[in-house]
Write a structure and sequence with these properties.
This protein is mostly beta strands and 332 residues long. It is 10% helix and 46% strand. The strands form six sheets. A four-stranded antiparallel sheet has the order 1-24-23-22, with no helix packed on it. The radius of gyration is 23 Å and the shape is globular.
Length: 332
């Protein structure tokens, strides 16, 4: 019906094809017969795609469903470490957990911690130690915490405090030197939003940037630090002490950043993920859908971009998902 309606209205590619049930095909050669044979097959795929509003540039695969407001995400090889924060971040209540997903173990999911003190952000250092961060009290605000998660043969997985920060911690990134970068939002123009926690004890936060407003997401590529402001949709680049505006997402609400060395990927509350070339030449959509994006993380070996959808208010945020799109060729 959609195909015939478009033909009748003279829209798009429909008027130029004879591939409809009411036409007679003339087939003097192979090239001519391929036209009416191929177009119906193509239409059967194109029409549902166009009429349902599908917007994926890259096909997406969902690997975990039924997550309760998943928030923190870090990739360690092909394994994902993620947190559920419905009890911490929604009015509906629900789970607060630290999970470990292992695709090479048949998609096994192991709960490492139930009700961790911190759950908004997670990173792993090069030795496999897990670090968590959260805001304390309210966000935006000027209080946050960082903790370490280790396995004890007698007690099991345990969370121990590492340090406090004077910002409502929302995101972390750990670089190749094992230095942790932490960011959070504040409405206080004098607040320090961006910190570096030097590798080792991680107990001496160093303030890097102040007065960033409701800064919410951070990542690093080489010497450049990228951060996003959730209230404005701005993404900034900081390098050699110079802070410059890189782009503004028209939908606002940028919540997470990651890079593959060529593109900066950013997710937003409007459910979209886009990528912006670090050279500044292109900006394109990767995927879009229902449910805000809470985290995006690039995994270089598989060439996959993993991401968390928060879920929907209609389902009380109990329908969050872990997903991926293949954006680069896997490394053999």
């Amino acid at each position: 019906e959609a195909s015939r309606a478009a033909r009748g209205a003279g829209l798009g590619i429909w008027p130029g094809t004879t591939a409809d049930p009411d036409s007679t095909a003339t087939v003097p050669d192979l090239a001519t017969v391929q036209t009416p044979a191929i177009w119906p097959k193509l239409f059967r795929r194109l029409v549902p795609f166009l009429t349902t509003g599908a917007t994926e540039t890259f096909p997406s695969t969902t690997v975990l469903r039924g997550l309760e407001y998943p928030k923190g995400l870090w990739m360690s090889g092909s394994d994902a470490y993620l947190t559920e924060t419905a009890g911490h971040n929604t009015s509906f209540g629900g789970k607060n957990t630290l999970l470990h997903w292992m695709p090479d173990g048949g998609g096994l999911v192991v709960t490492l911690l139930t009700n961790p003190v911190n759950s908004d952000a997670v990173v792993l250092d090069s030795d496999g130690r897990i670090y968590l961060a959260s805001y304390e009290g309210v966000t935006p605000g000027e209080a946050g915490r960082v903790s370490r998660v280790l396995f004890d043969i007698e007690a099991g997985w345990m969370e121990t405090p590492v340090t406090d920060v004077n910002i409502a911690a929302q995101d972390m990134f750990i670089d190749a030197n094992d230095d942790i970068y932490l960011i959070g939002p504040s409405d206080n123009p004098d607040a320090t939003n961006l910190y570096r926690l030097a590798a080792g004890a991680y107990d001496a936060p160093e303030g890097l940037e102040s007065g960033l407003g409701r800064s919410y997401a951070v990542t690093k590529d080489g010497s450049a630090i990228y951060y996003a402001v959730i209230s404005t949709g701005e993404i900034h680049r900081v390098d050699d002490g110079i802070d410059e505006l890189m782009l503004t997402h028209v939908g606002g609400g940028v919540t997470s950043l990651t890079s593959d060395g060529t593109y900066l990927y950013y997710g937003a509350l409007d459910g979209t993920i886009r990528r912006h070339s670090l050279s500044g030449e292109t900006d394109e959509q990767v995927t879009a859908g229902s449910g805000g994006i809470n985290a995006v993380r690039y995994e270089p070996v598989s060439g996959r971009l993993y991401y968390l959808r928060a879920g929907t208010a209609e389902a009380q945020y109990k329908d969050g998902t872990l997903n991926y799109v293949a954006v680069n060729t896997p490394i053999p």
